[in-house]
Amino acid sequence: MCGRFGYFLAGCCVLAGFTESSLFAQSDSKPGPSIRWINPPQESDLPLPTGVAHHTFPSELVDQDIGYCIYLPPSYRADSSRRFPVIYNLHGNGGDELRGLNAAELLHEQITKGIVPPMIMTFFNGGHSTFYKDSADGRYPIESIFIDEFIPMIDANYRTISDRSGRCIEGFSMGGRGATRLVVRHPELFCSLNCQAGNVPHLLEIYDQTPPDERGGLLLGDERSVWEANDVYAVTRANRDKINDLVRIQILCGTKDGGHIQTIRDFHDLLLELDIDHTYLELDGLVHNRVAVMRRLAPLWFDHHVRAMKATID
Questions:
Q1: For the segment 22-65, what is each residue's pLDDT rounded down to a tens digit?
Q2: What is the pTM of this model?
Q3: pLDDT one-digit tens code per residue, 176-206
Q4: Cβ-based neighbour number of residue 229 at 10 Å
Q5: Buried b (16+ CB within 10 A) or exposed e, 30-52
Q6: Strand 3-9 vs strand 12-18: parallel, antiparallel, or unpaired?
Q7: Residue 169: how many CA atoms within 13 Å on its side-chain side?
Q8: Which of 31, 39, 181, 242 is deepest in the core (most CB within 10 A)?
Q9: Looking at the predicted structure, is the pLDDT value of residue 18 above 60?
Q10: Contact assessment for residue 96 and residue 67, using Cβ atoms and an 8 Å cutoff
Q11: In this structure, what are the phi and psi dihedrals at residue 269, rounded to the nearest 5 degrees?
């Protein structure tokens, strides 16, 4: 059985379920994904945080170069024989590869202070309102680009620990929502998930509630099987054993985040029902604000990933 307990930490209410071993709250019912494939840093973006650089990689899936940012720790260049774990950071809706770089600033600070071990962090360009899915019309194969092109490109071009034991994923809002879905669909690729206020919608309920003549215009199209294959609740049930064996899960949300907190609680309840190890945090009084969430949890921001990778980085 999973246990529940509550306590307060730095002003946040924390609830955990475990075993011993808006922007758009329901945006799949709203069309309109888009992407600008490369977003070069502008004057207002400069200087980029220490250790961060902007690059591009070629995507065969869309026949486009795509922008990304990457943080390399100081020891990356100092020790040319060493390999490093990677945190894949996914931005929220309306963002691009330049958003969320304050996570790299915090990571650099904690690495240089010896709080966390050296790690690489990447920032993928997921576009607007794609939710890191492959769109039914084929124009935005964002999941396929990330899984089949971006991760292999990072492993091929940087000295990574190129298996799930050294690969973490996280994101805020749309990024947390996307990271959660990618993990439950591909648990063999990651050792750690940190879903930061990422809404976890009940896609099949949305599909069933949408008039049949309107489904064709939605992000995932009109085939119910496609929606089922992307519904976190259905996929988590199907992949329960792999998820529990392979991935360390953390989900968090502010108690005043009205567009996201309910489905975060629903997902927490599902994990409890399925007896899947996880950590669950509700941040008392916080709304949907990434900076405020990071500020509240800054001393522990990377602790979840580090614990998941402990055997790899020791």
A1: 223 334 445 479 999 999 999 999 999 999 999 999 999 999 99
A2: 0.91
A3: 999 999 999 999 999 999 999 999 999 999 9
A4: 14
A5: eeebebebbbebeeeeeebbebb
A6: antiparallel
A7: 26
A8: 181
A9: no
A10: yes
A11: -65, -40
At a CB cut-off of 8 Å and minimum separation 6, what does 244 contact? 274, 275, 276, 277
User: Given CA atoms 218, 223, 229, 231 in this order, what sign does their dihedral have?
Assistant: positive
- Residue 39's identity, in one-letter code, is N
Output phi, psi for 141, to 5 deg: -80, 60
How far is the C-alpha of 160 from the C-alpha of 142, rounded, in Å? 22
What is the sign, positive or negative, of the torsion defined by CA atoms of 102, 108, 110, 116?
A: positive
Longest CA–CA span in the chain (Å) reads 59
Number of Cβ within a 10 Å radius of residue 26: 16
Q: What fold is seen in the domain 3-313?
A: Rossmann fold (3.40.50)
> Does the pLDDT at position 6 exceed 90?
no
The residue-averaged pLDDT of 155-160 equals 98
Q: Which amino acid is at 247?
A: V
CA-based torsion, 181, 187, 188, 189: positive or negative? positive
For residues 22 and 107, which has the higher predicted lDDT (pLDDT)?
A: 107
Determine the Cα angle at 294 with ends 291 and 295, to 5°.
Answer: 85
297 sits in which H/E element: helix 290-297
Residue 105 has pLDDT above 80, yes or no: yes
- ω before 47 within 30° of 0 (cis)? yes
CA distance linking residue 31 with residue 113, whole number of Å: 45
